[in-house]
Fold each of these.
Amino acid sequence: MNKKELQAEIMRLKKEKDICILAHAYQDHELWEVADYMGDSYGLSLQAEEAPQKNVIMCGVRFMAETVKTLAPEKRVFLANASAGCPMADQLTREDVLKLKEKYPDHTVCAYINTTADLKRAVDVIVTSSSAIKIIGNMPDDKILFVPDPNLGGWIAEQMPEKEFVFSGEGCPSHRKITADDVKKARELHPDAEILVHPECMAEVTKIVDFAGSTTGIMKYAKESEKTEFVIGTENSIVDHLKIECPEKNFYPLSPKCVCDDMRITTLEDVYGCIMGTSGEEIFLSPQEIEESRKPIDRMIELGG
Ligand code: SF4
């Protein structure tokens, strides 16, 4: 089957087998075209919870499929490519967090949503890059232990000097590849462009650009801006999506190195194989794991409104 035939077959089969397909923003455009919903990991989980279908296929990485299972435990949830992990989510375990809690007993533990379901069981609240400022701002707690991205955590801390932060974890290896030197070069090459980056980038980058925000925030900014040239500092798939969605504007990657192999591993063939039961993996979490990992997510919803 060629690409169009495969996409048509996936569209037919997903209706026949009552499947909702979710595609993270960093997936290839050809996967967006067969998806019921596209967005960031939290947005996708909410869509999965509300979707009428009984089965969900996640085109993304493992922690995203786990979050969907946590929020919609009655559904069968599949990860389209079983080897799609997140190197950042794997940097800290639940046991690591329990040890950190002993070291910082008076700190509230706040974890980025890009963490495993097992780690979520040990933390107090989850945040996303788009909701972190609001959620932590709404918390009465003034001592925060933030995991596992010190770059996102530092960007949040910068905006709320009234709170005290400690960090653990190393952050996203893909976004860490972008440097201040890349920004300097981009300014020389594209002097009229605005530079938009994700706060998973290092502080040396976020401090000298025009806008730092979540993936959806970057896309919204670029679409609504009157400017016509943008340099994008996040996973480079977003450059491709923006080129397709805003053909009248110009988009350039801030660094050719900002590519997440795990996010790019999933293909249309994987989705087809997952539907046919020949590839992919069903996500299983015990009732206890679901109950415990859901608590900090519910706290996020409560604080984020
Ligand atoms: S881009 Fe970074 S945070 Fe996202 S899946 Fe890849 S390694 Fe994980």
Amino acid sequence: MNLEQQLIQYRRELHRFPELSMQEYQTTQRIRTWLSEAGITILDLPLKTGVVAEVRGSLPGATIALRADIDALPIVEQSGVEFSSENPGVMHACGHDFHTAVMVGAAILLQQEREQMRGTVRFLFQPAEEDANGAKWLTEQGAMEAIQAVFGFHNRPNLPVGVIGVREGALMASVDRFELTITGISGHAGMPENCIDPIAIGSQIVMALQTIVSRRISSLDNAVISVTRFSAGNTWNVIPGEAHLEGTVRTFQKDVRARISELMRELIENIAAANGAKVQFKWNECLPMVNNSSLFTSIIKQVANEAGLRVVEAERSLGGEDFAYFQALVPGFFLWIGVDGDQEWHHPAYRLSEAALEISARYWALLARAVLEKGI
Ligand SMILES: [Zn+2]
Ligand SMILES: [Zn+2]
């Protein structure tokens, strides 16, 4: 079996047996088996799921990491492919099966070349990207020790096979979550003058929050504020005592991120006070932005040209990606790789082209060699 056939087989096996975040037990076992069969060293870290492995070159050099995420989503598959999910209600709808197979392929290639290779390539097969906890957790288990640079990618359905998207600086947005509880005074719906209505106040807050992006943030910056839950009351003739709201904020600028939480707090507390209500505002920082280091832009493009791949400027995404945690520790770069899909990520009919598997594995092996040859 040649490499391409082997990677197609690996990817299909992962696709048939998808597992949710932090439950990737069989996936972990499969990756361990494939790497072991290729003679690749698996590091002995205290991992519940996920695999950390290394290919050590014969020549001295730096240590870099290549990362693939391995988890799937709680989606009922409707892709119609013959190797559709056999785990009901779970689906590789974000293409992490593809990411995993590609990085196993890169590890196999580098293992074959290790006599001529400089330095060490550590492979991070990371669990739980979808719940945004895996990268941090893997780091806490020691996976990033001695790493000097980190690289990763996401498949991109709207790019054709043979194309990679590259962008220096911010590529994917920071992700924050907010929650607020408005406490008013409950009472008879016919006599609102005796109540403080948290629904009316919450509605003012929802509308006022929309003015932060349009009126308080420069139009040269970017941000999104979405209120995604508004719950209050349980019947038609009682004004409730409380309303609960939550939502998310996304941006590509660090200073905008800090400023938005302050502007939101000010607006929310003042609207509540003006209406005689109390409010509790909670801001939870979820993920920093994926921020690509200028150290690697030219080598990434140069190796792509050598590998016959076409480079385009990567479109930014307001989605979050916990690869950002690794980049907060060491410089790194995150790419898009074209897979010629017909649906966006997380769609029940999500499909990608397997023609991208082998070329992506070869690209990562070449890039790792080139980065280590050049030095960091
Ligand atoms: Zn996803
Ligand atoms: Zn994903």
